[in-house]
Design brief:
Rossmann fold; nine-stranded mixed sheet; alpha/beta; single chain; 552 residues
Amino acid sequence: MTSPLYGQMMDIPLLASSLLSHAARHFGDTEIVSRRIEGDIHRYTYRDCEKRAKQLAQALIALGVEQGDRVGTLAWNGYRHLECYYGIPGMGAVCHTINPRLFPDQIAFIIDHARDSYVFFDMTFAPLVEIVAPQCPNVKGWIALGDASCITEHLGNLSVPVQSYETLIAAHDGHFEWPVFDERQASILCYTSGTTGNPKGALYSHRSTVLHAYAAALPDSTCASSSDSILPVVPMFHVNAWGMPHVAPLTGAKLVMPGKDLDGQSLYELMEAEGVTFTCGVPTVWLGLLAYLKQTGKRFTTLKRTVIGGSACPPSILHTLEEEYGVDVIHGWGMTEMSPLGTLARLNFKQKQRPRDEQLRALEKQGHVMFGVDMKVVGDDGRELPWDGKSFGDLYVRGPCVIDRYFRRDESPLIDGWFPTGDAATIDADGFMHITDRSKDVIKSGGEWISSIDLENIAVSHPQVAEAACIACSHPKWTERPLIVAVLKPDATVTREELLAHFEGKVAKWWIPDDVIFADELPHTATGKLQKVRLREIYREYVLPGAVEDRV
C-alpha cells in the first residue's frame, strides 16, 4: 500500500486569537464603538482591543489560570466583554458565556458544572452575583467589568469580594505573544437554555470557532465585509452573538456594541450615529424598532440588511422591512449545538428570476445551509425524505461546527453521525429548509426557550391541581407565550391569579405563564399521553391577556 502524499503548506493552526491579530494588523484603526454601562459612548480600535486582550491574558496567567480552565462572563455587548472573548481563549483557557436571563439556580448550576475558576461580570448584574455567588464556592474570584471608582460607587453594598477589571489588567503591559497550540483545543463554552432539566454545555474548539466565522461571513450568509458597520443586537451571552464578534474582525468591519439599552429608540439612535449597515437580532427587537419608526416617522439612512432568527420571523416584520424600509431580511436558523448558525435565507440566481411574491415566500423560510453544514429530514422509519417542500420529518444536521457530545457527558446524542435537532421541517427543491413544528413541546418567547414540561410540573405541584398541560399561544410581540390548561381536583377553589402566583420564585419571571384556562378534562392518546397537538388546535384562536395591546 502506498503512503499518502501530503500537501506542502504551512501548518498554522486555526486559533481564535488569529482573528483579532488579523484585524489589529490589517484593520488596526477600524473602530469598535460601545455604549457603556456607565452611560457614555466608548471608542477605540482593533489595535487597542488586541493590546488590552493581551493584558487580560497576562493577568489571567498571573492569577494562575491554566490552559483548559473555564472563565465565566456575565456581560452585555461591549468592548470589555469583547476583550474577554479573545483574551481568555487566546491564552488557552475557555471563555464560558453565561446567560443572565436564566433562573439563578440554573446559573449557579452552570457555573458549578463548568467549574469556572473566575467570573467577569457587568455591574448591572451585581444583584444576580449577590444571589449566585454563595452557591458557587469553587469560583476563586468575581471581577467587575469597570474601574475601581465605579466599583466603589455602585458595588459598595455587595457582600461578595470583587476585583476591578481595569485595575487587574493595568498591572500588565500587553507585550505578549499569543501562544500556539492545537486548534482542536476548547475556545468557548455555551450552555443551552435548559429546556428540559438542567442546561447542557456545548464546548466549541478554536477550529470550529474560526470555521464558523468564515462560513458566516460568506456572501450567501451574512455578506459581511470591511465596508460594513455591524451592530449585533443579539447578546454576546447568547451563543456568541451568532458569531458576529468573530465575523467582524475576520472581515475588518466596524463593530458597534449596544450595551444594555435594547429599546427601539436607543438602537435606532446608535445605528444612525454610527452608520450601521448590518445588524442581527430576534423578532422581538424588530417589533420595538418598527414601533418606534412608526411613532416618529423616522427612517433608516444607512441600514442595508439584517439577520432575524432565534424564532421564526413573522411575515409582517419581513414584509415591512423589505417593502417599506428597503432593508434586506436574512431569515436565519441555528442552535447552540451548531455554533450556532446553520441556515440563512439568501435568494440564488434562479430564485431572483421569479415573481416577487414567490421570492418573499422563500424568504419566509429558514433558508439554505451555509458552508460546513449538511442537513436532512427523516421520516418515522428513519429514512431520508425527499426535498419537495411538502414531506416533513425530523431535522438532522452535521458538520465541523456541530457538537459531537455535550460537555462533561459521556454519551453522544448523534444518530449515525447526525445530530437530531428536535425540530420538524421540510426542504424544498431549492434546498431551502422550513421549520414546520418542534419535535419537543418547548415554547420560544422573545428568542429564548421555555420548557413546557417544567411549567406543567410546577402547575401540578399545586395541591388543588389534578392535571395540567402547557402549550404555546401566539403573541404579536414575543412570538410565543405559555398558556396553562389545568384540570382541578374535586371541590378545588384555586383561582387563575392564585395558580399564576404559584409559579413565582420557582422559575424566572419571564417563564411565568400569561394565562390559565380551567378545563373539565384534557385530551389523551390511547396510551395515556397528552395530546398537545389537539390542545393547540382547540386554543389556536385564543388571545392572551395584553396581547392585543402589544401589536405594532
